[in-house]
Design brief:
mainly alpha, single chain
Length: about 55
């Protein structure tokens, strides 16, 4: 039982770290006014938003 609890705590901490990195990345790009690429954009659209200003 103790081993399961420790394993669960480790997994929770690992997931929090992943989430922290993702949120920090999103906040950074938002502060820099860098758009997030959507799932429907194709490769020909990559980088076009950066030059339209």
């Amino acid at each position: 039982l103790v081993q399961l609890d420790t394993s669960h705590k480790d997994m929770v901490q690992k997931n929090r770290n992943y989430l922290k990195v993702i949120v920090e990345s999103i906040l950074y790009t938002a502060q820099q006014n860098i758009h997030q690429r959507g799932h429907e954009e194709d490769r020909s659209m990559i980088g076009q938003q950066s030059y339209i200003n």
